[in-house]
Amino acid sequence: NPPNRPPKCTWTLGSSAKSPHHHEVRKINNKISQTILENIGFTPIVRLNKIEKKFGLKCNLLAKCEFMNPGGSVKDRIALRMVEEAEREGKIKPGYTIIEPTSGNTGIGLALVAVVKGYRCIITMPDKMSINKDSMLKALGAEVIRCSSNVSFDSPESFFGVADKLQKKTENAIILNQFANPSNSLAHYDNIAEELLNQCDGKIDVLVAGAGTCGTLTGIGRKLKERIKDVKIIGVDPLRSVPSSTEYKVEGIGISFIPTVLDRTIVDQWHRCNDKDSFQCARYLIQEEGLLCGGSSGSALSIALLLAKDLSEDQTCVVILPDSIHNYMSTFINDDWMIEKGFMEDPSTANDLKPWW
Ligand code: PMP
């Protein structure tokens, strides 16, 4: 195991009363913000009316719009939480450098927090990630190092290996390490899960989310299981030819090792998504519901649709839409890209999504 990733979870996440962690509930700010960081979270949850009708669903199908965060993704929440926890513990001080290996969104969140708080930020990122993320990171003043996507995660050339090397040679540099940092799932446990419970009046039967670090699944899942009897937590991971492959094109999800952050007892079912359904579903969310989301949102929806068809009128399925269209202007939003990659045949029928069961 690389030095930053202990082999198994060394901490527990639990109800705030018994938890060993610092917990905090953020309050919505409808007035003038002192910084944009006050506006992280508090995202809308929207009913997918047209998709329910098109697919003949009886249940309520709801989307949590994490693409509406200031940095465009759910990862703004963990970026803020990891930095503020490190500040609280005295691990990071003015003038320090934040280094993070990330598929992009945690990097954008950290770059946003760093620019507001005045830290230097260096992001190591696999080269398969879109150029749009690269541009956004650089616009936020972060330094970006692209690393090979075709090496194993424990190779020195991987985005993990490069971040480790860089930390060793940079003075006062910290890797917050979203894959092992308890603040990752804590941010979801304390914040997004509370928002969901509030917004849905505690009525959620199925929650579907993509799996990357698994912070979203573990944090939300843990809180919902404490509060809702029989809620089902569904993890979505991309289909690939071999387990270590990074051949799939959807960004931000895909487990190539078991992250420390994942509590496997929380997830009731794992499902494999494929690229074509993921991108078509994401385009459908944009075209039919006006939700300007990214590809992994489509991955979650493609699996939610399979499960939702068996739910009844009084049941609710929530899908997490983790990031925004603006990461993907050069990829799945583009018809030529979709055709070139074999995810679409004819643009005129491209968005005519049909039930696949
Ligand atoms: N979708 C996207 C686009 C992401 O960037 C991420 C984070 N890597 C996820 C889904 C998965 O979130 P988590 O890391 O909490 O499992």
From TrEMBL:
Q: Which organism is the protein's source?
A: Trichoplax adhaerens
Please indicate which part of the intact protein appears here, giving the first and last residue numbers and the full length: 14 to 370 of 508
A cellular component annotation (GO) from this entry: cytoplasm
Describe its assembly. Homotetramer.
Main location per the UniProt record: cytoplasm
Its function, per the record, reads: Hydro-lyase catalyzing the first step of the transsulfuration pathway, where the hydroxyl group of L-serine is displaced by L-homocysteine in a beta-replacement reaction to form L-cystathionine, the precursor of L-cysteine. This catabolic route allows the elimination of L-methionine and the toxic metabolite L-homocysteine. Also involved in the production of hydrogen sulfide, a gasotransmitter with signaling and cytoprotective effects on neurons.
Q: What is this protein called?
A: Cystathionine beta-synthase
What EC number(s) does its UniProt record assign? 4.2.1.22
For region Disordered, the annotated ranges are: 1-23
Superkingdom of the source species: Eukaryota
User: Which of UniProt's keywords are assigned here?
Assistant: Amino-acid biosynthesis, CBS domain, Cysteine biosynthesis, Cytoplasm, Heme, Iron, Isopeptide bond, Lyase, Metal-binding, Nucleus, Phosphoprotein, Pyridoxal phosphate, Ubl conjugation
Cofactor requirements of the protein: pyridoxal 5'-phosphate
Give the family, as the similarity comment puts it. Answer: Belongs to the cysteine synthase/cystathionine beta-synthase family.
Which pathway does this chain act in?
Amino-acid biosynthesis; L-cysteine biosynthesis; L-cysteine from L-homocysteine and L-serine: step 1/2
What's a Gene Ontology MF term here? Answer: cystathionine beta-synthase activity
Catalyzed chemical reaction(s): L-homocysteine + L-serine = L,L-cystathionine + H2O
Q: Name one GO biological process term.
A: homocysteine metabolic process
**Which cellular compartments is it found in?**
Cytoplasm; Nucleus
